[in-house]
DNA sequence: CTGAAAGCGCTTACAG
DNA sequence: CTGAAAGCGCTTACAG
């Protein structure tokens, strides 16, 4: 199945010992230049490459990083993964990706698999269910096993003692609110399909901090959300919408248009979108850019750092990245 | 770093040999029920789990499948990956995912890494550059190394002798054309941002087969595509658009709307979209559903099958899946 | 400068 | 039914 050329076969062909071959290939000081040359030449000629599994067993390192994503079909996570990949693929590690599909049970299974000696480090965004039930024991357990782990995006309120990378959700919404306000919006509503998610709550709090007369339209069920949205919009009192997630954003934009409103004229909308596709669409929705690739890169960076450093005592980092607002057609 | 409990430690504690412990845990017939019990109990008590790296070295199998995707930010590939994951995660393999970012060079590197004993099988959709340059030697090489490989989505014209899963692109467009035609479209144009991609060509041919008076608007550069599209639409002669890919679809829809057309009224549009997001948008674009998850599942299924079967002689399969047309608001 | 030996943690013929 | 030995393909003290 694999290469038949091994250290042993090279050694036999050169009539020297396996140890000498190994050391030569690893450029050991102990070996004469001449021997190294001979060995390296033959190795190249025979197309030798070390059996990675054997190396891992010997070195007691898997050279793999486990990644757990809630849902790959969410473009936010796809972009985060791209960011992770960019950093990791330029290191000597590679990535095993699992999807929890927002399920706590599945998340546990993944973590369990990882912790059984399958990876050297873990990158995880917790599942919605985990977030809701606030069950974090399976994550905390990982610390006991001495496997470095870094969290991103959905970071539990109570600190778990892991490296974490998130975005300033609260402030992002405050900025969005202020932007709308400074552009003649008098009555701004908040729309969300993620009312229980950590990030959703922070965003809602950001909104609530800005108004004494809040209108919050929040349902996990998209059908319910849609109906409530339709009724609210029909009333015609709201002239500004801040949407907390991509689904709420698309839905809000759709209902507005369907009712004959032109987002950007009588009414404004700022939300969260998939930047690539939004760019090609009309109207371009004004949106909060979380720079998901950057989130991925930063998280991977921390983990790689921790994997390199022997010292356990580098302090736990809690990185908060800034978002930016990109103004499109749906606000002015 | 990992579990300190090993076969050796269990053996010592039980005062029996490592081989007996190993066999007990693997439910060998050779061992007495009583000993098995003792061993299993202690193993559970101590939380033993076999070192996967050691098992792999012994078994000469990595238990990993390498996946190469052109671009994870394309929702089509994200869904394919989800399909792959669904099948593979229920097997005893797991997935290492690499992204070629549409680059031939990067694709070669990934394949090279995989072929050096890092995976047991490979799933790949070739990069755009690979497709363009028609350079397939690096893929054919994999066959020599005896590593099963399956292609999906972008399948080279000349058969390479690998399992392949694709979609009936030609016929899909023919159906779309016929649908528009039967709904009073007189002058149907074809819009594409993937003129050189295999799938793009098949789709174009499908279109060309249906008309003597074709209007093909095809540019890889989205800006160019947009400008040409604007001019064509301004002329007002086209009353039906078939778009060959997600970018062309979104762009076409956007330009139509921006020029005051209502897709679904004076003019129709059928294209390719991200189903999840399209569902929440307005207008819902009528689209050809490729069932990307199914593509992923089928491809993974074939590979797993080939990995299980010892016999090299199961015939190469070339699976062509059917698409379906989902009618939304932009056609009737 | 080179090589024999032990070991990483397992499995599996083979003996007893 | 149990265990000693060899081996998967490497690396690395340790001797010479």
Automatic annotation (TrEMBL), chains A, B:
PROSITE patterns, A to Z: HTH_LACI_2 (PS50932)
GO MF, one example: transcription cis-regulatory region binding
Keyword Transcription regulation: yes
Domain HTH lacI-type intervals: 5-59
Alphabetic keyword roster: DNA-binding, Transcription, Transcription regulation
Pfam families from the UniProt entry: LacI (PF00356), Peripla_BP_4 (PF13407)
CDD domains reported for this sequence: HTH_LacI, PBP1_LacI_sugar_binding-like
Membrane listed as a keyword: no
InterPro entries per the UniProt record, alphabetical: HTH_LacI, Lambda_DNA-bd_dom_sf, Peripla_BP_I, SBP_2_dom
Source organism, top-level taxon: Bacteria
Annotated protein name in UniProt: LacI family transcriptional regulator
Organism: Kordia periserrulae
């Amino acid at each position: 199945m694999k290469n038949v050329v091994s250290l042993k076969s090279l050694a036999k062909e050169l009539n020297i010992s396996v140890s000498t071959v190994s050391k030569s290939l690893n450029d050991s000081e102990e070996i004469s230049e001449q021997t190294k040359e001979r060995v390296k030449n033959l190795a190249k000629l025979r197309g030798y490459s070390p059996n990675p599994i054997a190396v891992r067993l010997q070195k007691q390192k898997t050279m793999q990083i486990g990644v757990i994503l809630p849902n790959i079909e969410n473009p936010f996570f796809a972009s985060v993964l791209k960011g992770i990949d960019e950093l990791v693929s330029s290191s000597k590690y590679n990535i095993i990706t699992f999807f929890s599909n927002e399920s706590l049970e599945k998340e546990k299974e993944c973590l369990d698999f990882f912790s059984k000696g399958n990876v050297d480090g873990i990158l995880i965004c917790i599942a919605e269910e985990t977030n809701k039930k606030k069950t974090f024991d399976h994550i905390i357990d990982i610390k006991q096993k001495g496997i470095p782990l870094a969290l991103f995006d959905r970071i539990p309120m109570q600190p778990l003692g892991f490296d974490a990378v998130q975005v300033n959700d609260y402030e992002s919404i405050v900025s969005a609110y202020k932007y709308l306000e400074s552009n003649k919006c008098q009555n701004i509503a908040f729309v969300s399909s993620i009312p229980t998610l950590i990030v959703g709550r922070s965003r809602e709090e950001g909104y609530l901090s800005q108004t004494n007369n809040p209108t919050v339209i929040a349902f996990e069920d998209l059908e319910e959300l849609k109906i409530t949205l339709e009724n609210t919009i029909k009333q015609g009192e709201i002239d500004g919408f801040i949407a907390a997630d991509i689904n709420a954003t698309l839905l809000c934009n759709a209902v507005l248009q369907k009712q004959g409103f032109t987002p950007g004229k009588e009414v404004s909308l700022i939300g969260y979108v998939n930047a690539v596709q939004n760019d090609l669409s009309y109207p371009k929705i004004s949106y909060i850019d979380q720079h998901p690739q950057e989130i991925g890169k930063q998280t991977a960076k921390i983990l790689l750092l921790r994997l390199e450093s022997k010292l356990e005592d580098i302090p736990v980092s809690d990185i908060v990245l800034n978002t930016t607002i990109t103004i499109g057609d749906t606000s002015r």
